[in-house]
């Protein structure tokens, strides 16, 4: 098992944002988390990645306990993430953005840089190749010298994935990766996510676009009020009466 | 024991001064989200303008403080309009750098007009009181009483008046306040003006027992920042408690250890607090 | 070799050559040489500020304090303790870095205004110690007759021109270190923190440790500049360590350009020159310079070198984007496209690295 979550919980003040969640993420699969707004999906991501400290439960990655590890340790351990609102370095080119993702895999230090050691030269070349390859894979290499603030939303979203890829993860957490992308382009974007496992990158994602999830995910976890409502294959989820009820009952929540 | 009581009163009086200075600074932080590094310079200018009206023009003491407070209020409004307002969307370092520029400017102006030498403001209130065997100068009693009155008025202003309530609303939720029709730009000017007014009252009160110099604001600036960080940036009760706690700690260490330690105590406490709680003692816990 | 085609590097080299040649013009004027050499000492400290403020985006107000520690270490050790300059200099620089590293242990946990105020407190504590601990630092009487560096019979550093070249060589090393950091992944790490600490966290940057090291590095440069300064001027007083000194450095870097390689040097030399020019109004210079700082930060926050660099970047980017687009590649080109653009990428490798050296 790649990622094992057991009894994970987080209380803010007196409220349970996430309560007693179990989830297994299989290697080579795309696993999705869905649920109405405020169901605790983003909190769950922040708990896995170490932005929040869980109040109960445990997270294990590749059999190693990472419940209390900090975000930068999670990334070096092989878990990358993207944010719901696209986060890029706006004043930098796309290439520079993706190069930033290489920092965590860089071993050369300040003295290597000052003395221009062979290790530093080798690593600079390697970083450049890897960054370019990640941009290629995400289909945005032609924009690599454009500033991140000057490219369309879809290109930004793809670059965010490329930046996460550049950290050489085994697992990628994608928080609404297709949010803000026009409907007709989501299929293309879905294909990109679908192709990640073939690179040895398993995926855990949160997404609102229901049609996209059903085509994409191998396993779906449904959260409601921070708790597990159901888990199973897309077909099982679609026919689950609890899920249908929660979704019909929650349309009002979503508008709030 | 007599010495202790004497120093306790000195500490409370100093606390009143810190309090008037700290409240304005913490309000400015709460509303504008900027640490106004020029606050100490406003204090210094407030002292000089009071001195000017008292000594050169010759108006009575209370009137001199009043006129100076109004002039500084206008200056605070201008500072917000001309310096901080254009920078409202800039990175946070830019505000601080601009405030430092303003501070230099104010210091230079004071030096050009009044010279670099120390000035003494004659005590308009003389005499002293015997309390529990200790002799407390009347000026210190005036400081304590005025501080309490001003704090009371300020609390009333913030809780009861329209302007005060808008300040509080913005401090709590900037976007929310904008949504209900409060004009944040107006409130920002008002707040900075108010902070300059309060710090001028503090300067006018303390000037008769201290000397005036163009750099008199520097040490106060740092101490007041230490206070509002202790109390949590943006917190009024925190600023009040922090002011008196720090002032008493300062007078006591000066008396019983050494004046250098007394001067440094604020910063030692500040460093210690930030080591334990990087966002100050009473700051709301940030969810991470 | 490619580096010489880069206008940024050419510009920096031109500035350095001009400064290197100043003794030809003013070699006989001891006063002018002294002023220029003091400027270079400040510039070294400003390079420290550049790492923490320019690269990492954290306003450190302790730099004057670190400058003071370096100056007083050299001053006191070479006079009261009769050490040689080099021993004192080494101890001063190592000591300043150590103090920077230790205070960085706390600084790494604070951010934004808390970091600024914390470092201001550190700077003020250093100043208080220097100005009040009379039995050791002589407080306001200062330290006289600080030694010149010893060099046997080879060079006589009491000669202002010789001293100038010593400071200049050390400055060159600082400029090079800044350049090397800027184009390496270390520099990228710091710039990432400047842009967004959350995003830096998310891509695996150890934000706290990086801040701590950047702060220690800024202290290192501060001590280096301060130690040289003590020897250049021969007399130091507590004003070498004031918070005002920090503010002066801040103005230098602001005029030159934060986060650039040449900015600290350019800004320091220009403002030092202006200070001299307004020397008759020493005390009043901030009547003009205060509003200048404000105007710069409002209207021209990137500084002289920052704007020149931005101009060069835009032109370079246009050229490169143009060349990619005219090659007529699109995403669907598949395999051939991958090869071609990888090759294009490699040949552009030097260009990409240079692009990052502002």
The domain tally of chain B reads 1
Uncertain segments of chain B are 284-288
Distance between the termini of chain B: 49 Å
Strand content of chain B: under 5%
**Mean pLDDT, all residues of chain C:** 83
Text of the CATH class of chain C: Mainly Alpha
- In the CATH hierarchy, the third-tier topology of chain C is known as ABC transporter involved in vitamin B12 uptake, BtuC
Which pair of protein chains has the largest interface, and what are the residue counts?
A-C, 55 and 44 residues
Quaternary organisation: heterotrimer
Helix content of chain C: over 70%
Distance between the termini of chain C: 18 Å
As a whole number of angstroms, the C-alpha radius of gyration of chain C is 22 Å
Q: What general form of chain C does the structure show? A: globular
Number of helices of chain C: 17
* Broad structural category of chain B: mainly alpha
Task: Walk me through the structure.
The complex is a heterotrimer of chains A (256), B (288) and C (358). By secondary structure, chain A is an alpha/beta fold. Chain A contains eleven helices and ten strands. Chain A has helices spanning 41-49, 71-77, 94-100, 110-115, 118-137, 153-166, 186-194, 210-216, 234-238, 241-249, 251-255, and strands at 3-12, 15-25, 30-34, 56-61, 64-65, 79-82, 171-175, 202-206, 219-224, 227-232. In chain A, the strands form two sheets. Chain A has a six-stranded mixed beta sheet with strand order 6-7-8-3-9-10, sandwiched between helices. A four-stranded antiparallel beta sheet of chain A has the order 2-1-4-5, with helices on one face. In chain A, helix 3 (94-100) packs across helix 5 and helix 5 crosses helix 6 (153-166). Chain A starts with a strand and ends with a helix. In chain A, 50% of the residues are buried. Helices cover 75% and strands 4% of the residues of chain B. Chain B is built from eleven helices and four strands; from the N terminus they run ααααβββααααβααα. Chain B has helices at 2-32, 39-57, 61-84, 92-114, 138-160, 162-172, 174-179, 184-206, 216-231, 236-256, 259-276, and strands at residues 119-120, 128-131, 134-137, 211-212. In chain B, the strands form two sheets. In chain B, strands 1-4 form a two-stranded antiparallel ribbon. In chain B, strands 2-3 form a two-stranded antiparallel sheet. The termini of chain B are far apart. The model of chain B is unreliable at 284-288 (pLDDT under 50). Chain C has one domain: ABC transporter involved in vitamin B12 uptake, BtuC. Chain C contains 17 helices and no strands. Chain C has helices spanning 7-20, 22-26, 30-55, 63-79, 85-107, 112-132, 134-137, 160-183, 185-195, 197-202, 207-233, 243-256, 263-277, 285-299, 303-326, 334-347, 349-356. In chain C, helix 3 (30-55) runs antiparallel to helix 11 and helix 3 (30-55) crosses helix 13 (263-277). The model of chain C is unreliable at 328-358 (pLDDT under 50). Classes of the chains: A alpha/beta (256), B mainly alpha (288), C mainly alpha (358). Chains in contact: A-B, A-C, B-C. The interface between A and C is large, with 55 and 44 residues.
